[in-house]
Amino acid sequence: MPITTATIALGVYLRTTDYEHAEAVIHLVALAGCDAAHALGMGAVREGQPGYHKRNDPDGDGVACGTFVVENPTAVIPAPVPSSAPAPAQAEAPAQRRVGNAKFVKP
User: Fold this and answer.
1) Cα separation of 33 and 53, whole Å?
2) Which site in 8, 49, 70, 85 is 20 to 30 Å from 37, CA atoms measured?
């Protein structure tokens, strides 16, 4: 019974979504979380792209699943080149914000 229900729900979603079928499946897999999205081979997803969900973007920068676990910590990563221009001033983040029904409070 659960497989039948899931199959019917998937069929209805694929017929009613604005995404193409492949994009719709990617969007559904990403809903399961960043681990599932990474297992599918997806990288960071920007807001507005298939696979972006606010619940996968805890820092609110518009990039979901933007943090990755380093698989080879001994790999050499080139150091950034310092620029002579001063860094732009960063605006302070709000003390708390809401994403969906979850409430995030800055410690």
Assistant:
1) 9
2) 8
Q: Which two tokens mark 77?
A: 């990563």
**Residue showing tokens 């979901």:** 64
**Tens digit of each residue's pLDDT (9 = 90 or more) over 40-87:** 888 888 888 888 888 888 888 888 887 544 455 454 445 555 556 555
Radius of gyration from C-alpha coordinates of the chain:
19
Evaluate whether 41 touches 25 at the Cβ level (below 8 Å).
Answer: no
CB 44 within 8 A of CB 63: yes
Prediction pTM value: 0.51
Terminal C-alpha separation, the chain: 44
